Amino acid sequence: MDISQILFYALSALALGSAIMVVISRNPVHSVLWLIITFFAISGHYILMNAQFLGIVNLIVYAGAIMVLFLFVIMLMNLNAETEPQKNKWLKLAGVVAGGCLLLVMVAALKQAEVKGQVAMLGTGDIGLIKNLGQALFTDYVVPFEISSVLFLSAMVGAVVIGKK
Amino acid sequence: MLIERYIYLAIALFCIGIVGVLARRNAIIIFMCIELMLNAVNLLLVAFSKMHYAVGVAKNATAGIDGQLFVFFIMVVAAAEVSVGLAIIVMMYRNTHSVDVNFLNRLKH
Amino acid sequence: MVPVLLIVIPLVSGLLGFLIKQEKNAKVWSLLTSIITMVVSILGIAVLHKPEYLQADVAWLPDLGSRFSLTMDGMSKMLCLLTGLAYPGIFIATWNSTYKNGYQFYALMLLMQTGLMGVFVASDALLFYFFWELALIPAYFLCSIWGGERRVAVTFKFFIYTFVGSLLMLVAIIWVYFHTPDHSFAMSSFYKVNLPGSTQGWLFWLFFLAFAIKIPLFPFHTWQPDTYEQSPTAVTMVLSGIMVKMGVFGILRWLAPVVPVGLWGYGDPAASMCVIGMIYGSIVAMQQDDLKRFVAYSSIAHMGLMGLAIFVTSSIGIQGVMIQMFAHGINIIGLWIVVELIERQFHTRKMSELGGLAQKAPSLAIMLVVVSLANVALPLTNAFIGEFMMFNGVFGSKASNYHYIFMVVGGLSIILSAVYTLNMLQKVLFGNTSPLTANALDLKINEKFVLAVLLIGIVVMGVYPKPMIEATRHAVDAIYSKMFVKLP
Amino acid sequence: MNAIVISAVLGVVMMFCGVFTNSKPAVRTVAIIGLLALVIVNVLDMGGYHFFNVNVKGMLSFDIFGLLFNTIAFGSTWIYFLLSGRDMERVGVNLAEYFALIFFVLCGIAIVSSFTSLLMLFLGIEIISIPLYILTGSDKRNLKSNEAALKYFLMGSFSTGIMLMGITLLYGVKGSFNIDVIRMGTTNLTPMLAAGLLLLLFSMSFKVSAAPFHFWTPDAYDGSPTVFTSFMATIVKVAGFIAFIRLFEGCFGDVQKQWQLLVAIIAAATLFIGNITAVFQQSVKRMLSYSSIAQAGFMLFALVAMNDMAKDGMIFYAAAYSLATIGIFAILLKMKDYTFEGFNGLAKRQPVLAATNTIFLLSLAGIPATAGFWAKFYMLSAAINNGNVMWLVIIGVLCAAISAYYYFRVIQAMYFKEGEAEPQEVETTSGFKGLLIAIAAVVVILGIFPHWLLDQLHNLFYL
Amino acid sequence: MNNVLHLVWLVPFFPLVGFLITGLLRKQLSKPLTTIIGSGMVLASFIVSVLLFTEVKNGNTYVANLFDFISYGTLSIPFAFQIDQLSSLFLLIITGIGFLIHLYSSSYMHEENNEHFGRFFSYLNLFVFSMLLLVLGANYVIMFIGWEGVGLCSYLLIGYWFKNIEYGNAAKKAFIMNRIGDLGFLIAIFWLIAKLGTVTYTTHDGGGVFDLYQKLTRTDVIGITMLLFVGATGKSAQIPLYTWLPDAMAGPTPVSALIHAATMVTAGIYMIARSNILYTMAPETQSVVAAIGLATALFAATIAIKQNDIKKVLAYSTVSQLGYMFLGLGVGAYTGAVFHVMTHAFFKALLFLGAGSVIHAMHHEQDIRKMGGLAKKLPITHITFLIGCIAIAGIPPFSGFFSKDEILAFAYAKDPLYYYLGVAGAAMTAFYMFRLYATTFRGTFRGTEEQKHHLHESPAAMTIPLIVLAILAAVGGLIGIPESLVPDAHKLEHFLEPIFAKSNEIKMAALPEHHTEINLMVISVALALAMIIFAWVRYSKKPELNEPAGFGKVLADKWYIDELYNYAVVKPLQWLARFMNSFFEKKVVDGIVNGVGRMVTYTSRQVRLLQSGLVGNYVLLMVLSMLALFVVKFFIKK
Predict the structure, then answer these.
(1) HSE value, Cβ hemisphere, 13 Å, CA-based, for C20
(2) A residues 12-71 near B, CB within 8 Å?
(3) What's the pTM?
(4) Domain range B3-108, CATH architecture
(5) Of A95, A105, A109, which has the smallest distance from its Cβ to E620's Cβ?
(6) Total domains in the fold of chain C
(7) Which GO terms describe its biological process (chain D) (predicted)?
(8) How far is CA D66 from the centre of its chain?
């Protein structure tokens, strides 16, 4: 077992563990923090796969910007206390069971996945580098890139509509 | 690293996200769990990207790159969604002083 | 040309009718229209014999293989004639009725005529379906706006019920369409379809349901008494006199020739339903106190016989059905006219509240007696011819294994019909007058006129049915041969 | 490409309109004229006049099917602007922004009707969805509107997650997001493909509000300002269908037999739930939400059958359904009371409204001589032609009968019930009435000559 | 071929015209005018009938095809009249007696106002028309038309006084009972069509029923004859369908005389006589006919013994006499049966008209217990009535003797038991007729003073028919003097021979030896005389005024047959109808339809609860559905 494999398992464990903590934390602020840890773990995976650009972007955009926004909203609403009333226990249980079953079913379904046995190369290749990604983004992917500006425009207008008193 | 491990990992994260959506009542946390789901997808996409790279690199030096680009777009969209989503949640909070989705039951049947 | 006129005249006139806001004018307008339509239909059956006059064919939906094609064969001619004759009669007989926003009433009546005529002349399955539904919509509005107290719910049931049936028929039509050799909705293509027996079996039931609900056959009849009871009488006349014939017509035109094997396979169960319906309708009619419900149940019994005659597959029986469609139309409209006159005068339809009318209104009594007797198929009235031929067909059927049983059990309805009809006559006409009928008035001149014409028609047809038989013979032969030719 | 660019530009224009003028009629006029221009450029696109020769790098493909659909969607929106544009003013102050958002949605629609890459599908759907979240919540002080927006948003994002997982699994197998690549060599649904297909099926079902993924629909439609419900329930919904069909035909057209049953189950469930639940509604608006679910069930027939007839029928269904529903919503917007009782006696007070409304309702119920009949006819024909799903056909017709039940309740209220003496509805202009009559006439003309509209377009460009 | 026979259509045409005129102009025409038209038309018919008869007597017969009635495929049913020996004889009876009764009615119904008087005459004319159709028809369908037509007229005339619900019920009962029979007749017609493809009696080219009868199998011929007989039992009031006839006495008395004694009720005999060849082919049916006839004869006679209503006695007597005719038909004595039809028409019409005269005099009192001693006050009525009674009792040389004893003689030849029972019936006949006679005309008057004051003989319009009929009843039998008494004197038999020729070829009904026959006559006459004397003596002095008790009550209450029918058929049918209407129709048939509707709304109410408004639930349901679909796709093997 080489170092990258050890890293893989460690990061995976971290991601899963902190993801579970996101769900089970009573305090929203704790959830946010656990989620940030999950994002770090995922960024770690990206870097492990030599997708440095995505790893960094993930940290900046998700862990940095988005989660801060979340935190900000939670603070704004003064929700940092464990205010959430107990949801119906049965419903909660049903949720967990349903999610668990879905996991089982999907895993079972994908056990015979046609890509089984193929390898996702770790630590090699340069497609994850910003140069290559940038080139592709502004040549082959220029249309979606431009289109996403429309998306942002609409989000902007939306924020205006919603936010304006 | 064998691809199925990434598949299982991603699905597990994905399902944890789903369980979070199912089990929590706080709109913000539900939203966070959805973000978790998206991240699971991102992770899997990158893994597939690397897998296809391994297969196709001989013919094409940038094989598998579209997977990573897709991740980029997902992040873009997620950012936009978050801005709108949080705006809605805040608006809701302003009116009801709660982010508990179970209070959202004026519309039913 | 004739079929086009039969559709277009009432359609255009009906649409224009919405613009005539004055009831009196609307009445005159629609009467005139209906008379013109009548004249055209008479021309169609009696004068214009060249095929080009009796057909029309215009491209409609080329991509789907559906054409706006109309044909008048003997059966169509007769039913068009019935429709053409009935409308002026109805308008004259109900001349004294007034309706709120009457102009709409008359306009819708004319639109309904369009649908009815269309059903009878369409020789394209899709077009047929089109008109089939179109006839229903005005009926729905007519009953729901101008009907009795429970009109909305009752008409709604009627509408939904028949709608279900028609949709099932639509499924069957589309299915057959995809199996026509040339992917066409044309009647001729439908007749060429050769489907395996099992397919024909379930197609039979799909068609059958639509028609059985419309006719209506037991046990799909429960919309009918309520609807007849609640509708304004003019509408009831159209419904019972003409619209229910659509079902019989549909069986003869579309069911029997298209899925003959299905009809053989399931003719006996279907015929059994008809027979049960005959007896059942008669028995229930015996218990009715409301005149409209009474007529409704008796109509169920009579329509059952028509169904029976068709489903046992015999040529003379089908000929009888042809005659009877016309005869029953005339008779039942006559009955409704009398009922309407009674209701308008006494504001009740309850037999128990009437009585003694024979003393006070002898003309009315005579009319009612004659029409009722025609309804129970007394010889020398029109219905006798039809019933005789139908029962003859049932008895002599070679297709059914149970035709003797059908004959005997169905024959009981002859007796039962006498029972309920005479009961009704006695309660309404005989005995002493009730407080309501003490000052009864006899018929007015327009009512007398319509009824006299009806009676003459009843007797003339009953004594000399030959022209009717001749007019429809070819159509019957055509249908009958199709029922036997298409062995898979 | 014309449509995508112009609609995006128009969105921006509307944004600036809001900055530069406060005159609502002016804003509306600009929007209406702009939309007309959009329709025209799209039609020109069909005729071969491409204004923007962008190299789309295999991301989009503008086939006649998509363009035709765009025309219908834009045309319907234009009618919608004409009919209900005035009513947007009553929602809030940001009239120009509403128009801008609608233009962005149209941009998204133009994308999903012509995507060839799953990435574009994703972006398109998001471009449609995000403005809709906003529009749903645009009545800011109305709790119902808030609630609807939040529900719609949460569930919409959830389904986006599902869709992305589906796309990812497909990518994992095929290594590409291009639908042609994905289709290539797909002769058998291997597990991961199947899982991807299922996830895409779920999320697309969600977008078109097919049961059991329809739960957001009644609440979102009911809660959002009625004027936007009209838009969402019609144009946006059928756009979802176009995307759905494009996706499934493009990616999995060759293995249709293997997923037909699943779609059939979903269609049956949608028909059942939509129709059954609509029966018991008290509010016409909510009834229409369920009816839109029910209609989605019929549109799913196109997917179940997946033949030429189905695609033709889909276009026709889109037009017929949109026209009728927009009309009904336009009338509903004039009512003060959205319950069935609110319609009592409308025929006496507003005969034109009642008559046109009746025609629209008949069309929705699928009565012959209205466009809706042909819509249903095509769908039933497609499914019958397919032959494997007769059970679904029978369920379909029975449900159609049930649908008559609730549509006719409105007719009953308008015509057969006595209403209040004083008017229960907002004043209407004669222009509005004239427009309604024109739409009703189109519905009837389409009901008698279903190919009339297409033939006209055809004559315009190809002769 | 003589041209006179072409006029056959005139025979029914006159009454039809009479019906239309008197019916349509009933308000305008005065009573004398109505009488003239109504009776005149029948008289005209009678005259034509006589002309036809003389022609037929010369051996000419004729079938007049008027027009195609129902013609389809190979089946052709023309509207055709056949004039031959049998029909011409019936024509005479119908128009002759019909005319007399019209004449009688003009006086009897004088109290009615113009309108109803006209109505009465129009009904009578319509009846004559229908009856003529019945006998003239050249095929079974035309016969059936007349058959139902006379039923209708019977209905109209029984219910002539329509204010009285009881009368209405009687009319209804008559019509319905007749319809039961008609159904049998109708099925027989269909059977014939199915097997032979024709209903015409006979044609030139041998294509009629009576030409092709050999093509019928044994089953066919038994079935057809049995069904025809069912028709006959309805119309001719035989067991089990006889109960309507006594009730039919609710109609005006001339109606009872014409329809329910002289003509319509004999239609069944006519029909079987017409179809004699078929019956000869079916001895089994013949036995049934004989048995039913005999049973009816005896059964009705027992009831008649205890009746106190003058018309009821005559009605049961009619039923009984009709039974004799069927006995005759059943033993193959077709001529005898027709003969009895004729003589019975004379004396029974006479008796009814006499009874009418009595009732007229008694101001509509019909109970013989309240009469008595009328002989002096009503001399003509008395004498004619007495003649009628003697005739029916079978005392030579009055008409009834010859016809009845011919039947009994043939019955003896067939089976002596038939004879003995028949004679017993004849004895009872003599007894109850003279019980009636004695109670009514002998003894002392038991009515009210006022009735006594007003007692007077009827006017000439009523007595003339009585006298004419009395003469006929007295001497009418002479055309059928049996061979055993005077050789070659049976004119009727020779006259009718062509009609029964085919039957006779197959199986000539045998007569006993001449001396045996004479012995039989002596026995029956002796018995009848004894009964006459016994009844005369007993009831002249001490009429039976008390309510009968014991077995007498059973007889007086008609063996409770009406009650039996009421409980066995009418009540269950009504119950069934009520059940069907109030339960089955509303709860089951409609209940299912409405139930579907309710189920939809109920489901709707339940399903919409899914829409709980809670996002958590929505997502949960979505996830569960996803799970389910995953399972369907992956784990359910097809």
Answers:
(1) 21
(2) 12, 15-16, 19-20, 22-23, 28, 31-32, 35, 38-39, 42, 45-46, 49-51, 53-54, 57-58, 61-62, 65-66, 69-70
(3) 0.92
(4) Orthogonal Bundle (1.10)
(5) A95
(6) 1
(7) ATP synthesis coupled electron transport
(8) 14
